Amino acid sequence: MHLARDRARSSTPTWLVAVGAPERPAIATTRIAHTRAGIEEHITLAVGHAAGQRPPLEALPKLAETLADRHDLATMVTELRPARADLTAPAHHEPPSIPLSFTLGPDAVAELGLARTRRALAELAPAQLGPTARPALHFTFGDGTNTSAWQRLHQVTAYLGTGRRSA
């Protein structure tokens, strides 16, 4: 990661790819770039689960809290979709993913205002993560089986997007 940060500081974008093991299929990509806001990292992680395995959805709030507290999380969207456990893509249509959760990091919560951000979805109160003085907010949309989660994600991001200050 040191090489990527040095490249980003010199305005050279970097894209890293990591692959898991056959017994635990995973693919992660990290795009690191120098922007007006500083060094930004965009991370995508896909983890495969066998048909009989239940994805550890209960771990998502703790993961979000750790990323917000220790790694300057800005936003995180988690999704679930039926697919091959080895993460390969077949040559036919597969169902799209369904959002599980949306997390807004402490900087964004502070910028938008805690009270305003909590009201993003009237029927869904977010979990407050991290320190009370500088919390992140985590919205859970379900277990990945109800496609209405896309509408909830859109409602949250549209509501919160209207409050962003222009740079």
Return the string of H and E elements.
HEEEHEEHHEEH
Number of helical elements: 5
Strand order of the largest sheet: 4-5-7-6
How many extended strands?
Answer: 7
How far is the first residue's CA from the last residue's CA?
29 Å
> How many independent structural domains?
2
Low-confidence stretches: 163-167
The largest sheet, given as strand count, sense and whether it forms a barrel, is: 4 strands, antiparallel
**Range of strand content:** 25-35%
The best one-word shape is: globular
Helix-residue proportion? 25-40%
What is the structural class?
Answer: alpha+beta
- Estimated radius of gyration: 17 Å
Protein name: DUF6177 family protein
Pfam families: DUF6177
InterPro entries: DUF6177
Draw up the topology in text.
Elements: H1 2-9, E1 14-21, E2 24-35, E3 38-47, H2 60-70, E4 75-80, E5 98-104, H3 106-112, H4 114-118, E6 127-129, E7 136-140, H5 149-161
Protein name: DUF6177 family protein
InterPro entries: DUF6177
